[in-house]
Amino acid sequence: MPNNLQATTTLHNGVKMPWVGLGVYKVKEGSEVVAAVKTAIKQGYRSIDTAAIYKNEEGVGEGIREGIKEAGISREDLFITSKVWNEDFGYEATIEAYETSLKKLGLHYLDLYLIHWPVEGKYLDTWKALETLYIENRVKSIGVSNFQIHHLEDVMKYAKIIPMVNQVEFHPKLSQVELLSYCKLHNIQLEAWSPLMQGQLLEDPKLIEIAKSHNKSVAQVILRWDIQNGVVTIPKSIQNHRIIENSSIFDFTLSSDELKQIAALNDNKRVGPDPDNFDF
Protein backbone atom coordinates (compact mmCIF):
# COMPACT_ATOMS: atom_id res chain seq x y z
CA MET A 1 0.00 0.00 0.00
CA PRO A 2 1.42 3.46 -0.90
CA ASN A 3 2.72 5.32 2.15
CA ASN A 4 3.88 8.71 0.80
CA LEU A 5 3.19 11.26 -1.91
CA GLN A 6 6.04 10.03 -4.09
CA ALA A 7 4.81 6.42 -4.03
CA THR A 8 4.26 4.94 -7.48
CA THR A 9 2.48 2.15 -9.28
CA THR A 10 4.31 0.34 -12.07
CA LEU A 11 2.60 0.38 -15.45
CA HIS A 12 2.75 -2.75 -17.62
CA ASN A 13 5.70 -1.31 -19.59
CA GLY A 14 7.73 -0.82 -16.40
CA VAL A 15 7.24 2.95 -16.11
CA LYS A 16 6.50 4.18 -12.59
CA MET A 17 3.47 6.47 -12.20
CA PRO A 18 2.68 8.38 -8.97
CA TRP A 19 -0.54 7.37 -7.22
CA VAL A 20 -1.51 11.00 -6.65
CA GLY A 21 -1.17 13.96 -9.00
CA LEU A 22 -2.49 17.45 -9.58
CA GLY A 23 -5.24 17.90 -12.17
CA VAL A 24 -5.54 21.30 -13.84
CA TYR A 25 -8.88 21.09 -15.69
CA LYS A 26 -10.42 24.57 -15.94
CA VAL A 27 -7.45 26.15 -14.16
CA LYS A 28 -6.87 29.47 -15.92
CA GLU A 29 -3.83 29.92 -18.14
CA GLY A 30 -1.26 32.30 -16.71
CA SER A 31 -0.53 33.04 -13.07
CA GLU A 32 -3.32 30.82 -11.70
CA VAL A 33 -2.09 27.57 -13.23
CA VAL A 34 1.58 28.52 -12.76
CA ALA A 35 1.01 29.02 -9.03
CA ALA A 36 -0.97 25.78 -8.61
CA VAL A 37 1.65 23.66 -10.38
CA LYS A 38 4.52 25.31 -8.54
CA THR A 39 2.82 24.86 -5.17
CA ALA A 40 2.09 21.20 -5.90
CA ILE A 41 5.68 20.42 -6.86
CA LYS A 42 7.03 22.24 -3.79
CA GLN A 43 4.57 20.29 -1.63
CA GLY A 44 5.91 17.00 -3.01
CA TYR A 45 3.58 16.18 -5.90
CA ARG A 46 5.42 14.52 -8.76
CA SER A 47 2.54 14.11 -11.23
CA ILE A 48 0.81 16.89 -13.20
CA ASP A 49 -2.11 16.18 -15.55
CA THR A 50 -3.13 18.60 -18.30
CA ALA A 51 -4.62 18.41 -21.82
CA ALA A 52 -4.59 20.37 -25.03
CA ILE A 53 -8.24 21.36 -24.60
CA TYR A 54 -7.52 22.83 -21.15
CA LYS A 55 -5.59 25.59 -22.96
CA ASN A 56 -3.14 25.97 -20.09
CA GLU A 57 -0.16 23.89 -21.24
CA GLU A 58 2.14 26.94 -21.46
CA GLY A 59 1.35 27.91 -17.88
CA VAL A 60 1.78 24.31 -16.73
CA GLY A 61 5.20 24.30 -18.37
CA GLU A 62 6.17 27.51 -16.62
CA GLY A 63 4.95 26.13 -13.29
CA ILE A 64 6.99 22.97 -13.88
CA ARG A 65 10.17 24.95 -14.56
CA GLU A 66 9.69 27.20 -11.53
CA GLY A 67 8.63 24.28 -9.31
CA ILE A 68 11.64 22.19 -10.30
CA LYS A 69 13.97 25.06 -9.50
CA GLU A 70 12.42 25.83 -6.12
CA ALA A 71 12.09 22.17 -5.09
CA GLY A 72 15.63 21.32 -6.17
CA ILE A 73 14.58 18.37 -8.32
CA SER A 74 14.95 17.45 -12.00
CA ARG A 75 12.49 17.04 -14.87
CA GLU A 76 13.07 13.29 -14.66
CA ASP A 77 11.57 13.30 -11.16
CA LEU A 78 8.19 14.36 -12.58
CA PHE A 79 5.41 12.51 -14.41
CA ILE A 80 3.70 14.81 -16.90
CA THR A 81 0.50 13.87 -18.75
CA SER A 82 -1.31 15.55 -21.61
CA LYS A 83 -4.05 14.48 -24.02
CA VAL A 84 -4.84 14.75 -27.71
CA TRP A 85 -8.15 16.54 -28.30
CA ASN A 86 -10.91 15.22 -30.54
CA GLU A 87 -10.37 17.76 -33.33
CA ASP A 88 -6.79 16.53 -33.73
CA PHE A 89 -7.66 12.85 -34.15
CA GLY A 90 -6.14 10.92 -37.05
CA TYR A 91 -2.61 9.66 -37.55
CA GLU A 92 -0.76 12.73 -38.86
CA ALA A 93 -2.85 15.23 -36.90
CA THR A 94 -2.13 13.38 -33.64
CA ILE A 95 1.63 13.45 -34.24
CA GLU A 96 1.40 17.20 -34.88
CA ALA A 97 -0.77 17.71 -31.81
CA TYR A 98 1.80 15.92 -29.65
CA GLU A 99 4.59 18.16 -30.92
CA THR A 100 2.42 21.23 -30.30
CA SER A 101 1.79 20.15 -26.70
CA LEU A 102 5.51 19.56 -26.14
CA LYS A 103 6.33 23.01 -27.50
CA LYS A 104 3.74 24.71 -25.31
CA LEU A 105 4.89 22.81 -22.24
CA GLY A 106 8.54 23.47 -23.05
CA LEU A 107 9.37 19.78 -22.61
CA HIS A 108 11.34 17.25 -24.65
CA TYR A 109 8.99 14.36 -23.85
CA LEU A 110 5.82 13.42 -21.98
CA ASP A 111 5.55 10.62 -19.46
CA LEU A 112 1.99 9.83 -20.59
CA TYR A 113 -0.06 10.83 -23.63
CA LEU A 114 -3.75 9.97 -23.76
CA ILE A 115 -6.56 9.87 -26.30
CA HIS A 116 -8.99 12.26 -24.60
CA TRP A 117 -12.34 10.75 -25.73
CA PRO A 118 -13.36 7.68 -27.75
CA VAL A 119 -14.61 9.54 -30.82
CA GLU A 120 -16.36 6.89 -32.89
CA GLY A 121 -14.55 5.98 -36.09
CA LYS A 122 -11.47 8.06 -35.28
CA TYR A 123 -9.67 6.72 -32.25
CA LEU A 124 -8.03 3.71 -33.91
CA ASP A 125 -5.87 5.80 -36.26
CA THR A 126 -5.12 8.06 -33.33
CA TRP A 127 -4.01 5.05 -31.29
CA LYS A 128 -1.71 4.01 -34.14
CA ALA A 129 -0.06 7.44 -33.91
CA LEU A 130 0.40 7.05 -30.15
CA GLU A 131 2.03 3.68 -30.76
CA THR A 132 4.46 5.33 -33.19
CA LEU A 133 5.33 8.02 -30.66
CA TYR A 134 5.92 5.32 -28.05
CA ILE A 135 7.96 3.01 -30.29
CA GLU A 136 10.14 5.98 -31.30
CA ASN A 137 10.65 6.74 -27.56
CA ARG A 138 9.14 10.21 -27.91
CA VAL A 139 6.70 9.45 -25.07
CA LYS A 140 7.27 7.16 -22.09
CA SER A 141 3.73 5.74 -21.87
CA ILE A 142 0.48 5.87 -23.83
CA GLY A 143 -3.13 5.38 -22.88
CA VAL A 144 -6.73 6.45 -23.23
CA SER A 145 -9.30 8.50 -21.37
CA ASN A 146 -13.04 7.97 -20.95
CA PHE A 147 -12.94 4.56 -22.63
CA GLN A 148 -15.62 2.03 -21.75
CA ILE A 149 -14.95 -1.71 -21.91
CA HIS A 150 -16.17 -2.01 -25.49
CA HIS A 151 -13.87 0.84 -26.57
CA LEU A 152 -10.91 -0.90 -24.92
CA GLU A 153 -11.80 -4.17 -26.60
CA ASP A 154 -11.96 -2.38 -29.95
CA VAL A 155 -8.50 -0.88 -29.43
CA MET A 156 -6.94 -4.12 -28.26
CA LYS A 157 -8.15 -6.01 -31.35
CA TYR A 158 -6.29 -3.45 -33.45
CA ALA A 159 -3.36 -2.45 -31.29
CA LYS A 160 0.21 -3.65 -31.15
CA ILE A 161 0.48 -2.13 -27.69
CA ILE A 162 -2.15 -2.41 -24.94
CA PRO A 163 -3.01 0.96 -23.34
CA MET A 164 -1.09 1.49 -20.13
CA VAL A 165 -3.66 3.82 -18.52
CA ASN A 166 -7.39 4.52 -18.78
CA GLN A 167 -8.34 7.83 -17.16
CA VAL A 168 -12.07 8.03 -16.42
CA GLU A 169 -14.59 9.77 -14.21
CA PHE A 170 -14.41 7.82 -10.95
CA HIS A 171 -15.79 8.66 -7.51
CA PRO A 172 -18.09 7.06 -4.89
CA LYS A 173 -21.18 7.91 -6.96
CA LEU A 174 -19.62 6.36 -10.07
CA SER A 175 -17.40 3.52 -8.93
CA GLN A 176 -17.14 1.82 -12.35
CA VAL A 177 -16.87 -1.65 -10.80
CA GLU A 178 -16.91 -3.65 -14.04
CA LEU A 179 -14.51 -1.28 -15.80
CA LEU A 180 -12.10 -1.35 -12.87
CA SER A 181 -12.14 -5.16 -12.82
CA TYR A 182 -11.60 -5.30 -16.58
CA CYS A 183 -8.65 -2.91 -16.41
CA LYS A 184 -7.06 -4.85 -13.57
CA LEU A 185 -7.49 -8.09 -15.53
CA HIS A 186 -5.69 -6.59 -18.54
CA ASN A 187 -3.07 -4.72 -16.49
CA ILE A 188 -4.38 -1.30 -17.53
CA GLN A 189 -4.01 1.26 -14.74
CA LEU A 190 -7.30 3.03 -14.00
CA GLU A 191 -6.96 6.72 -13.15
CA ALA A 192 -9.67 8.92 -11.64
CA TRP A 193 -10.60 12.33 -12.93
CA SER A 194 -13.06 14.39 -10.90
CA PRO A 195 -12.46 12.11 -7.88
CA LEU A 196 -14.34 14.56 -5.62
CA MET A 197 -17.28 14.82 -8.06
CA GLN A 198 -16.53 18.54 -8.43
CA GLY A 199 -17.18 19.00 -4.72
CA GLN A 200 -20.66 17.46 -4.79
CA LEU A 201 -19.68 14.69 -2.35
CA LEU A 202 -18.26 16.89 0.39
CA GLU A 203 -21.59 17.13 2.27
CA ASP A 204 -22.50 13.44 2.08
CA PRO A 205 -23.49 12.26 5.61
CA LYS A 206 -21.84 8.84 5.37
CA LEU A 207 -18.56 10.31 4.11
CA ILE A 208 -18.67 12.96 6.82
CA GLU A 209 -19.17 10.24 9.45
CA ILE A 210 -16.21 8.22 8.17
CA ALA A 211 -14.05 11.34 7.88
CA LYS A 212 -14.74 12.34 11.49
CA SER A 213 -13.75 8.89 12.72
CA HIS A 214 -10.30 9.35 11.16
CA ASN A 215 -9.99 13.08 11.96
CA LYS A 216 -9.75 13.70 8.23
CA SER A 217 -11.69 15.69 5.64
CA VAL A 218 -14.21 14.10 3.30
CA ALA A 219 -11.89 14.87 0.38
CA GLN A 220 -9.07 12.98 2.08
CA VAL A 221 -11.32 9.98 2.70
CA ILE A 222 -12.40 9.85 -0.96
CA LEU A 223 -8.85 10.11 -2.26
CA ARG A 224 -7.75 7.41 0.17
CA TRP A 225 -10.64 5.26 -1.11
CA ASP A 226 -9.28 5.69 -4.63
CA ILE A 227 -5.82 4.54 -3.63
CA GLN A 228 -7.07 1.54 -1.65
CA ASN A 229 -9.07 0.51 -4.72
CA GLY A 230 -5.89 0.57 -6.78
CA VAL A 231 -6.92 3.71 -8.69
CA VAL A 232 -4.52 6.57 -9.42
CA THR A 233 -6.11 9.91 -8.52
CA ILE A 234 -5.59 13.49 -9.73
CA PRO A 235 -7.64 15.96 -7.64
CA LYS A 236 -7.78 19.52 -8.95
CA SER A 237 -7.35 22.60 -6.79
CA ILE A 238 -5.92 26.10 -7.09
CA GLN A 239 -5.94 26.75 -3.34
CA ASN A 240 -2.67 26.09 -1.55
CA HIS A 241 -4.28 24.62 1.56
CA ARG A 242 -6.41 22.26 -0.55
CA ILE A 243 -3.41 21.13 -2.57
CA ILE A 244 -1.65 20.33 0.70
CA GLU A 245 -4.75 18.70 2.23
CA ASN A 246 -5.28 16.46 -0.81
CA SER A 247 -1.76 15.11 -0.47
CA SER A 248 -2.15 14.18 3.21
CA ILE A 249 -3.78 10.77 2.76
CA PHE A 250 -0.99 8.38 3.62
CA ASP A 251 -1.24 8.35 7.42
CA PHE A 252 -4.52 6.47 7.77
CA THR A 253 -6.27 3.42 6.34
CA LEU A 254 -9.93 2.79 5.62
CA SER A 255 -11.25 -0.48 7.00
CA SER A 256 -12.81 -3.10 4.75
CA ASP A 257 -16.19 -2.19 6.22
CA GLU A 258 -15.65 1.51 5.45
CA LEU A 259 -14.61 0.65 1.90
CA LYS A 260 -17.89 -1.24 1.49
CA GLN A 261 -19.92 1.63 2.95
CA ILE A 262 -18.35 4.05 0.48
CA ALA A 263 -18.84 1.63 -2.43
CA ALA A 264 -22.53 1.39 -1.48
CA LEU A 265 -22.94 5.08 -2.36
CA ASN A 266 -22.60 4.23 -6.05
CA ASP A 267 -25.62 5.11 -8.20
CA ASN A 268 -23.81 5.48 -11.54
CA LYS A 269 -24.18 9.25 -11.46
CA ARG A 270 -21.89 11.31 -13.68
CA VAL A 271 -20.87 14.97 -13.55
CA GLY A 272 -19.22 14.71 -16.95
CA PRO A 273 -20.47 13.43 -20.31
CA ASP A 274 -21.36 9.80 -20.92
CA PRO A 275 -18.67 8.48 -23.31
CA ASP A 276 -21.33 6.59 -25.26
CA ASN A 277 -23.64 9.59 -25.64
CA PHE A 278 -21.34 12.58 -25.93
CA ASP A 279 -21.88 15.05 -28.77
CA PHE A 280 -18.36 15.58 -30.00
Automatic annotation (TrEMBL):
<dbReference type="InterPro" id="IPR018170">
    <property type="entry name" value="Aldo/ket_reductase_CS"/>
</dbReference>
<feature type="active site" description="Proton donor">
    <location>
        <position position="54"/>
    </location>
</feature>
<keyword id="KW-0560">Oxidoreductase</keyword>
<dbReference type="InterPro" id="IPR044500">
    <property type="entry name" value="AKR5G"/>
</dbReference>
<dbReference type="Pfam" id="PF00248">
    <property type="entry name" value="Aldo_ket_red"/>
</dbReference>
<feature type="domain" description="NADP-dependent oxidoreductase">
    <location>
        <begin position="29"/>
        <end position="266"/>
    </location>
</feature>
<feature type="site" description="Lowers pKa of active site Tyr">
    <location>
        <position position="83"/>
    </location>
</feature>
<dbReference type="GO" id="GO:0016616">
    <property type="term" value="F:oxidoreductase activity, acting on the CH-OH group of donors, NAD or NADP as acceptor"/>
</dbReference>
<dbReference type="InterPro" id="IPR036812">
    <property type="entry name" value="NAD(P)_OxRdtase_dom_sf"/>
</dbReference>
<comment type="similarity">
    <text>Belongs to the aldo/keto reductase family.</text>
</comment>
<dbReference type="InterPro" id="IPR020471">
    <property type="entry name" value="AKR"/>
</dbReference>
<protein>
    <submittedName>
        <fullName>Aldo/keto reductase</fullName>
    </submittedName>
</protein>
<keyword id="KW-0521">NADP</keyword>
<dbReference type="InterPro" id="IPR023210">
    <property type="entry name" value="NADP_OxRdtase_dom"/>
</dbReference>
<feature type="binding site">
    <location>
        <position position="116"/>
    </location>
    <ligand>
        <name>substrate</name>
    </ligand>
</feature>
